[in-house]
TrEMBL record:
SUPFAM superfamilies: Band 7/SPFH domain. Keywords: Membrane, Transmembrane, Transmembrane helix. This is Protein QmcA. It is a single-pass membrane protein. It comes from Porphyromonas catoniae ATCC 51270. Residues 21-201 form the Band domain. Belongs to the band 7/mec-2 family.
Length: 327
């Protein structure tokens, strides 16, 4: 090939390479930090951007990736990236041993959700952002758990999550990072502690069962006594009402008897009217005769004693005889 053709081809290739290197395509939700001659120049937005080759150069960032491995284990891999992801990122930190306030060694692993809001500060304010966030999370978690007992740690996950999120958010604000959420996945105390806690929970359940049983018996006794008391009240009320009704019946009977006697006296008075006889003596004599009949109704009554006043009443029997004749 003649040299006259080689030179234009080389020039064309250099132009194509220069243009290719001058074009920087950034995907959506990503950004690129560009340095010009080793100094920060600008931050590229998503889309097609033009830079000067060999003068402008994207600044790489060291990033952390978690990869699944065999037997459920996870492996951490670090790599350098030029496109910084602005979406929310999830970090699954491995288990770590922490000591509670009551000196119990516990294994805890956490998940962290954070987002880069200022790529420039995330690039220049911290050397290794993912590693720094991981170490900050571990030390903050140890400090928080060290102020709590084991029982409080197991029952206060929300409290721990909120405290840890606030601490991390304040510390990472300088790095251009926003911590949105922190979650504790597992809290695993030692085996002997778990066995002791299981026995304690079993004893607590038995205690609650006994308390509920005693309260049930107490309630049943109270209900039974209340039933007996109500029964006695109802019985007394029934007897009272029966006595009232009986008294009313006796009163009505006496009233009817009195009305009958009054009517009888009126009829006797009408019968003896004009004869000069006394109807009261007639009634008294009748009562004495009835009483005398009752006194002599027994088999063993041989002698009957009459009061002295009865002689006067008996003397009126002749008048009664005359009254009956006139009637």
């Amino acid at each position: 090939m003649p040299i006259e053709l080689i030179i234009p081809i080389v020039i064309a290739l250099l132009v194509i390479i220069t243009i290719y290197q001058g074009l920087c395509i950034v995907q959506q939700s990503q950004t690129v930090i560009v340095e010009r001659l080793g100094k920060y120049y600008r931050t590229l937005s998503s889309g097609v951007n033009i830079i000067i080759p060999f003068i402008d150069r994207p600044r790489p960032m060291r990033w952390r990736y978690t990869m699944p491995g065999p037997n459920g284990q996870t492996y951490v891999r670090f790599t350098e990236i030029t496109n910084i992801d602005l979406r929310e990122t999830v970090y699954d930190f491995p288990r770590q041993s922490v000591i509670t306030k009551d000196n119990v060694v516990t294994e805890i692993n956490a998940i962290l959700y954070f987002q880069i809001v200022d790529p420039m500060r995330a690039m220049y304010e911290i050397q290794n952002l993912p590693d720094a966030i991981e170490k900050l999370t571990q030390t903050s978690l140890r400090n928080i758990i060290g102020e709590m007992d084991l029982d409080e740690t197991l029952t206060s996950r929300d409290t721990i999550n909120n405290k840890l999120r606030i601490i991390l958010d304040e510390a990472t604000n300088k790095w251009g990072v926003k911590v949105n959420r922190v979650e504790l996945q597992d809290i695993n105390p030692p085996r002997d502690i778990r066995d002791a806690m299981e026995k304690q929970m079993r004893a607590e359940r038995d205690k609650r069962a006994q308390i509920l049983n005693a309260e049930g018996q107490k309630e049943a006794t109270i209900r039974e006594s209340e039933g007996r008391m109500q029964q006695a009240i109802n019985h007394a009320e029934g007897e009272r009402q029966a006595q009232v009704l009986h008294a009313k019946a006796e009163a009505e009977a006496k009233l009817l008897t009195a009305e009958a006697e009054a009517q009888a006296i009126r009829k006797i008075a009408q019968a003896v009217e004009g004869s000069g006889a006394n109807p009261a003596q007639y009634l008294i004599a009748v009562r004495y005769l009835e009483t005398l009949k009752e006194m002599t109704s027994g088999k063993d009554n041989k002698t009957v004693y009459l009061p002295y006043e009865a002689s006067g009443v008996l003397s009126s029997l002749g008048g009664i005889k005359e009254l009956l004749k006139q009637s």
